[in-house]
Amino acid sequence: SDPENGFIVVTQVGSQTFGIVVDGVFHTEEIVVKPMSTKLRHIDMFSGNTILGDGAVIMIIDPNGIAKALGAAGSSAHGMGDEAAGHHIGSGEQTTSLLVFRAGSSQPKAVPLGLVTRLEELPADKIEFSNGRYMVQYREQLMPLVAMEGVTIASQGAQPILVFADDGRSMGLVVDEIIDIVEERLNIEVGGSSSGILGSAVIKGQATEVIDVGHFLPMAFADWFTRKEMKPSLHSQSVLLVDDSAFFRNMLAPVLKAAGYRVRTAPTAQEGLAALRAQSFDVILTDIEMPDMNGFEFAEVVRSDNNLAATPIIGLSALVSPAAIERGRQAGFHDYVAKFDRPGLIAALKEQTAGAAGASELSRAAAA
């Protein structure tokens, strides 16, 4: 292949990161993985196969098999990584995968990668203008495009798009250039002064604007956060969200409200305890890495209070390792979810509040 125009798929297995050199990248596609033929199961590099929409049969690469092929050094590095992960949890070290891009100016901007469904470069001639707005036919649906301030939609060539999707609907955020994906400690030091910007943080040594995704989603679909079936009812479950980061509180609260929960936020563990003693909640979501009192210590205090001990606690962290999960279990967590795993968080909430919802229904039925 052409060494000047090749591609490297950066893959992570546990704490081990390596690159897979490929000739080209076509697109992303949702598939159903079929088991390997018995005659091929001895090949560790592949985990199965699938049939594409055009009838072609392709093999599915197994990153674990490739990691295994790298040898014992990779295995020992993985063990060291788990130990380091436990240390980072204890020391409050927290990094976030961030997508860095430019839009409307030379100033770099960033968004947590976990919020982005796909990165696309769409042919400009595929972008259409209808009903007063730009849109594109994307995965058999019309996807509205929202351009950030100062961004002009390309008339030729390729147009970079950040795709955000939820509940079967997608929107594309039009940007000028996708720069990089980085792992950084996200600390918004200066609050945002314009709409759509949460604030500025130092990312890879440069002041970078962190965008507020929640500002742009309703610009594509006005009811993104307020669809009728998602509106909280009078009997919806209540959630206490404890997180010292204003960024994560601002990001998660609308997601939880859109899923039908009543949400109260607290910026510190101490304020979270005060809220718990002032009113009852169906479930507690707490960050792990917090100053003064971390999430583990917060959970232990809650568990030691007879009036609060029965309330389910879900831990949130950007770093989920076996050591951290075990530490959370000892502290009294009912579940442990990665901060940017939105489907996993909603699933965990539904599981932990199912019992409370059933009890509420029984109480209302008895009262009737």
From TrEMBL:
GO biological process terms held by the UniProt record: chemotaxis; phosphorelay signal transduction system
InterPro entries: Bact_Chemotaxis_CheA, CheW-like_dom_sf, CheW-lke_dom, CheY-like_superfamily, Sig_transdc_resp-reg_receiver
Residues recorded as bearing 4-aspartylphosphate in the entry: 287
Residue ranges annotated for the CheW-like domain, each copy included: 1-72
Top-rank taxon, per record: Bacteria
Catalytic activity: ATP + protein L-histidine = ADP + protein N-phospho-L-histidine
Protein name: histidine kinase
